């Protein structure tokens, strides 16, 4: 990403942080490519993906901001987190809604 989860330095990186936060995912490793030109280029070569941010789940490249947003909207992100043993906080939020 660009910047840090606490202080994203680009709207695209910020969007990824916010989406993860919605699902209660705050504990992940983030690397600031603005601090490391080799990482900035190297990660693009590694994933064969031209832009930052890049999201990896269990070391597997998932996509950038657009793809994460799409996965958020179509429910895939909840499922992918489940595979990692992470229960999305959005499921509990939905339950709370039903009670009201
Ligand atoms: N559509 C992209 C948005 C990300 C994007 O366009 N990133 C640009 C601007 S931050 C980028 O990484 N450019 C190359 C670079 O800055 O090294 C996505 O889905 O992630
Ligand atoms: S830093 Fe300018 S669009 Fe990301």
UniProtKB/TrEMBL annotation:
Gene3D superfamilies, sorted: Glutaredoxin
Domain of life of the source: Eukaryota
Domain Glutaredoxin: 8-62
Pfam families, alphabetized: Glutaredoxin
Positions bound to [2Fe-2S] cluster: 10
Sorted UniProt keywords: 2Fe-2S, Iron, Iron-sulfur, Metal-binding, Redox-active center
GO cellular component: mitochondrial matrix
GO molecular function list: 2 iron, 2 sulfur cluster binding; disulfide oxidoreductase activity; metal ion binding
CDD domains, per the entry: GRX_PICOT_like
Family: Belongs to the glutaredoxin family. Monothiol subfamily.
Protein name per its UniProtKB record: Glutaredoxin-related protein 5, mitochondrial
Organism: Lonchura striata (white-rumped munia)
Gene that encodes it: GLRX5
């Amino acid at each position: 990403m660009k910047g840090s989860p606490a202080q994203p330095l680009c709207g695209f990186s910020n969007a990824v942080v916010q989406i993860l936060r919605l699902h209660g995912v705050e504990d992940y490793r983030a690397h600031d490519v603005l601090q490391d030109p080799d990482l900035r280029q190297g990660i693009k070569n590694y994933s064969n993906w031209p832009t930052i941010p890049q999201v990896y789940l269990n070391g597997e490249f998932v996509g950038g901001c657009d793809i994460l947003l799409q996965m958020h909207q179509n429910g895939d992100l909840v499922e992918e987190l489940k595979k990692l043993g992470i229960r999305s906080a959005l499921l509990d939020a939905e339950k709370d809604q039903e009670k009201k």
